[in-house]
Amino acid sequence: MTVWIAETLSRPPLRVGDDTSAEALQSELSERLEALLASHNGLEPTAEGWRALALELALRHEPAFQIETPVDRASIGGRPVGLGDFILRSMLKASKIVARRVDRKARTLNNLFSRKATTSDSMRREKYELTAKKALQKAAAFISQK
């Protein structure tokens, strides 16, 4: 995500009062909408772009469109594995390799890697979310033809 998109989408909520007009908000909302569209694979403000945005937001936030995947049903236990944990584990593995190459003992690193590495939950869900997204797009196209 480019810097302007991240900056625009991280702005605080708009302050609206009794004296705030729609015209006063229009410029800021236009910037935010443009950034929102761009943050979803560079969508354009066309009918197709708005539809794709609506479908993505429905999949992400609307309970009626939520999916349950084998990843969700697995009884792994514990807290969800995030991308940060995945990156940290990768960095620790790299440091273990470096320690071996310089002939130093990596006893403490070996303890850290005593259990099987897990992929982040978001990465494991990705293929299922893609399937749901494609199905939702087909459903939207079908409904639009009625």
Description:
The chain contains seven helices and no strands. It has helices at residues 3-9, 22-39, 47-61, 70-73, 83-101, 107-112, 121-145. It has a domain at 1-8 and 25-66. Helix 1 packs across helix 2.
Query: Measured on Cα atoms, how large is the radius of gyration?
Result: 22 Å
Mean pLDDT: 77
Q: What percent of residues are in strands? A: under 5%
Low-confidence sequence ranges: none
Query: Structural class, please?
Result: mainly alpha
Number of strands: 0
State the helix count: 7
Largest sheet report:
none
Head-to-tail CA distance between termini: 36 Å
Shape: extended
Range of helix content? 55-70%
H and E string: HHHHHHH
Task: Annotate the secondary structure layout.
Elements: H1 3-9, H2 22-39, H3 47-61, H4 70-73, H5 83-101, H6 107-112, H7 121-145
Top keywords for this entry?
single chain, 146 residues, mainly alpha, 7 helices, 64% helix, 0% strand, extended
Write a brief caption for the model.
The protein is mainly α and 146 residues long. The protein has seven helices and no strands. Helix 1 crosses helix 2 (22-39) and helix 3 (47-61) packs across helix 7.
